[in-house]
Amino acid sequence: MKHLIKPNSDSTVRVEVTPASAGWDYLSFKVVALQAGERYQQATGGDEVALVPLIGTAVLSANDQQFNVSRKGYFAEAPHILYAPPRTDVGVTAVTDFEFAIGGAPAEGKYPVRLFRPDEMKQEVRGGGVATRQVNHVLAAPLPAERLILFEVYVPGGMVSGWPPHCHDGYANSPYLEEVYYYRVTPEAGYCIHRNYRRDNEFDELFTVRDGDLVLVTQGFHPVTVPPGSNVYFLNYLAGELLNEARATPPYDDPDWGWMKDDYGGNKMGLPIF
Which EC numbers does the record give (predicted)? Predict the structure, then answer.
């Protein structure tokens, strides 16, 4: 499967990946766009599921529970997130045009249905220098889930995210986590560069990413570079071998660049050079 998936604007399901299509074991993900009055239903089966509103107003249901949710936009405010355990019927009724992400991973059913509020979610400005970005821990430990981990990340123009580069594919005893990056980019002509690579140079892929694209991280380190004039939001869903509180286990930094956590301005050439 291609690791860069372009959106289908003619379909209700804009992008989608499953374990079968990705060739991995745990994570499923899709983005759905409904018009006002339309309804979407999904049985979670053996998966826990998290639903992230992107823009619009809707009524969400999980078995016999209902929740009213609204979001002005992913660049405007943090979301409420619906968590549903296995064997739950999830429904979405769009009050206005409503776009949302929904993804899942196998689980036992340890946690109940819950609507997470923005004030429960840790927000941090991470990094430094040209590697400054905002990371919102929208469903990450200590917020409870069995396998799912979710972040929303904001990267201004001229900045780099995921720096120093890190991996979570089992390399160097890193945790094994599958991951997707769902991108929204402004302005319309905006873009960013996403790289997936391994240190042995046996795997290295580079993508020019535009608004609505989905990138799969199947292995390797994965930094993101945003050119001046573009602004980027991305939504990360991760799932793998980490369970419950162990979801807080950090990834492994590329040792060629890990030193930059102590000096984000280090080794910078000054101008004029002569």
Answer: 5.3.1.-
Secondary-structure breakdown of the chain: helix, strand, coil percentages, each rounded to the nearest 5: 10, 45, 45
Asked whether residue 108 is assigned to any structural domain, the reply reads yes
Q: Which two tokens stand for residue 39?
A: 């309804």
Domain CATH number, residue 214: 2.60.120.10
Contact 254, 223 (CB under 8 A): no
Question: Is 259:131 a contact under the CB 8 Å cutoff?
Answer: no
User: What length is written for the chain?
Assistant: 274
Looking only at the bridges linking them, the beta strands covering 65-71 and 47-62 are antiparallel
Tokens representing 9 are 């604007």
Token pair, residue 188, equals 């319309």
Q: What percent of the chain has pLDDT over 90?
A: 99
- Around Cβ 88, how many Cβ atoms within 10 Å? 22
| Residues of the chain scoring pLDDT < 50 | none
Number of folded domains that form the chain: 1
Output the CA angle 221-263-138, nearest 5 degrees. 50
Residue 19 DSSP label: H
91 occurs within a structural domain: yes
Domain range spanning residue 20? 4-260
Question: Whole-model pTM?
Answer: 0.98
